[in-house]
Amino acid sequence: MIRSPAAKPASIVGAMKAMAGASPKDRASFAKGHCVRGIYIPSDRADEVTKSQSFTRPSRVLARFSVDGGNPLMPDTDNFVLRGFSFTLGDIGHRSDILTQSAPVHYARTTAQMLAYLKARIPGSDGRPDPEKIKAFSTANPETLHQASYMAAHALPASFADTTYWAVHAFPATNRSGETQFIKFKVVPVGSQAALAEDAVTTNGGLLRKDLENRIAARDIRFSLMAVLGRLGDPILDVTIRWPHEDRRETVRLGTIVITAIEANEAPDGSVFNPADLAEGIGYPPDQIFAARRAAYAISLTRRR
């Protein structure tokens, strides 16, 4: 089998921006976001999974809810658009940034495939992508449809607060006994609050932000941070597929993320949730997409500044 050479992260960032028509000052993806703050409360089982002080000690939380796409002004009312939830746990010496999304798989297995996926969707002179080009790429790369198929089959709830999020990568976690196993992070809402008020939809398409404001004004928003435990033979290099019987796997609750305040609109652009920031006890996933993501975030930040 002939393997395509890995794509350079800078090329991926450029293709993302070209596909979205994004401004150099905007994020390459998940450009529309809402920054929030809160606290993290570890469970008494966290050190069974990882000795990382980011997860075993209480800390403040900086987090960002977002919707996929390179346009920060896009409406956020489409329940079939991927959502993101990025958060920082720990202190300066023991900081971990975890990036999660509302689908358990990524849309590409390798960086070369990711770049080709993006290029197939870059708009032409008429401002629209070529559907035949997308169809041809999808036919040749069926695994790139796994994410879209999941999203089509699982409509999102009407709130960031009621959404389940996954980190699609397999992270090597070392526990208090020095034992290492792969885990996947899963963020699960605790309970569900009342439906949106009738006046929540605003003229600028800020439904999800208004919902956050309403919920936080009434009470805090809570998520359980879970570790899905890996097994020998799990596919740790392919982020387009799930682990066998993943939804029925043993999980350990690492702790609770409590969101207590929403920040100003401009706050998210001053904060970078860098996947390279992982405190000792959580290692880097070995797949190509994570390696590219680490580099791409630094490139995107430099370009935005």
From TrEMBL:
<dbReference type="GO" id="GO:0046872">
    <property type="term" value="F:metal ion binding"/>
</dbReference>
<comment type="similarity">
    <text>Belongs to the catalase family.</text>
</comment>
<feature type="domain" description="Catalase core">
    <location>
        <begin position="6"/>
        <end position="305"/>
    </location>
</feature>
<keyword id="KW-0408">Iron</keyword>
<dbReference type="InterPro" id="IPR020835">
    <property type="entry name" value="Catalase_sf"/>
</dbReference>
<dbReference type="InterPro" id="IPR018028">
    <property type="entry name" value="Catalase"/>
</dbReference>
<dbReference type="InterPro" id="IPR011614">
    <property type="entry name" value="Catalase_core"/>
</dbReference>
<dbReference type="GO" id="GO:0042542">
    <property type="term" value="P:response to hydrogen peroxide"/>
</dbReference>
<dbReference type="GO" id="GO:0020037">
    <property type="term" value="F:heme binding"/>
</dbReference>
<keyword id="KW-0575">Peroxidase</keyword>
<keyword id="KW-0479">Metal-binding</keyword>
<keyword id="KW-0560">Oxidoreductase</keyword>
<keyword id="KW-0349">Heme</keyword>
<dbReference type="GO" id="GO:0005737">
    <property type="term" value="C:cytoplasm"/>
</dbReference>
<dbReference type="GO" id="GO:0004096">
    <property type="term" value="F:catalase activity"/>
</dbReference>
<protein>
    <recommendedName>
        <fullName>catalase</fullName>
        <ecNumber>1.11.1.6</ecNumber>
    </recommendedName>
</protein>
<dbReference type="GO" id="GO:0042744">
    <property type="term" value="P:hydrogen peroxide catabolic process"/>
</dbReference>
<dbReference type="Pfam" id="PF00199">
    <property type="entry name" value="Catalase"/>
</dbReference>
